[in-house]
Amino acid sequence: MKLCILDNDILDGHLAQAYSSFGAIFVRLFEGVGADWTMELFNTQLGQYPDSFDDFDAVLLTGSRADSFSDAPWIVELRLRVTELLSARKKMVGVCFGHQLIALCLGAPVGRAPQGWGAGRMTYDWHRPELPYCAERTQIALLASHQDQVFEVPPGASLVASSDFCPVAAFTVGQEVFCIQPHPEFKEEISAYLMDARRALLGEEKYAAASASLQHGHEGDHIARMVVAFLEGTTASHAMTTV
After folding, report:
1. pLDDT attached to residue 243
2. Collapsing DSSP states into helix, strand and coil, what is residue 86?
3. Are 117 and 146 in contact (CB under 8 A)?
4. pLDDT in tens, 75-110
5. Which residue out of 96, 105, 166, 179 is catalytically annotated?
6. Per the CATH hierarchy, to which homologous superfamily does domain 2-115+148-185+219-234 belong?
7. Mean pLDDT throughout 130-153?
8. DSSP character for 119?
9. For range 223-233, the mean pLDDT
10. Which of 4, 166, 185, 222 does the annotation list as catalytic?
């Protein structure tokens, strides 16, 4: 498997020193659950793309502090590229910003969440037990950091996860596309750092509750295993039902 990672942000400060980039975090995540893949990173803000997506089996879009619906030239270019990949039925994964941008390209409305920022550990109802490693799953807990949301399931897509706070938390399109709003790649330290930086935006009540939620852990590795199996075409019957 050869994975193209489209890195949609440029980390700075402590996060840059500790983790290099969002794309590098995904490399460590997938390697940590046993993916024996070749993974190449391209920073879309810097205009970096592979010469041909045909050289890759799948494409992953990372998160970003930017808005997926922005008219910034690099985001317009990214939406054009993603629309072409969707038309070609390329296998794709979108996380947070990537989830929103793929949904937007599929025709779903995306915008600021009226309920404000989602932050810290959040729990979602899981609706797709037929996906790999999910036979007994009804909920999942992951780390979130977003102020935008997908408002409706995209045309032709199927809902995977939802919550009262985030009704479209994950979706699939056939066997090709898996998108998820929270961050399976995050560690608690990353979530805490971002919440500290946005403390004034979150407000003290939400900041305190979200910070306290981090002590309960999350299931990012489970989603990573599911994504690996999804991209490799492993069926649910051949994947372990529990982790």
Report:
1. 40
2. helix
3. yes
4. 999 999 999 999 999 999 999 999 999 999 999 999
5. 96
6. Class I glutamine amidotransferase (GATase) domain (3.40.50.880)
7. 96
8. E
9. 96
10. 185
Name which of 92, 65, 27, 212 is nearest 147 in CA terms: 65
Annotated catalytic residue: which of 146, 183, 218, 222? 183
The amino acid sitting at 26 is F
Active-site residue, 189 included? no
**pLDDT tens for residues 3-37?**
999 999 999 888 999 999 999 999 999 999 999 99
SS3 (DSSP) at 193: helix
Q: Is 183 a catalytic residue?
A: yes
- Whether the CB-CB separation of 44 and 6 falls below 8 Å is answered with yes
- Residue 134 is among the residues annotated as catalytic for this protein: no
Q: With contact defined as beta carbons under 8 Å apart, do 41 and 8 qualify? A: no
Q: Nearest-CA neighbor of 182 among 231, 225, 149, 228? A: 149
Structure tokens at 154: 């995209």
Domain ranges within the chain, ordered by starting residue: 2-115+148-185+219-234
Q: Are 42 and 9 in contact (CB under 8 A)?
A: no
Please report which residue ranges of the chain form alpha helices under DSSP H: 13-19, 22-32, 73-87, 97-105, 188-197, 199-202, 204-213, 220-232
For residue 12, the model assigns a pLDDT of: 86
Cβ-based neighbours of 205, under 8 Å, separated by 6 or more: none
Whole-number CA gyration radius for the chain: 17
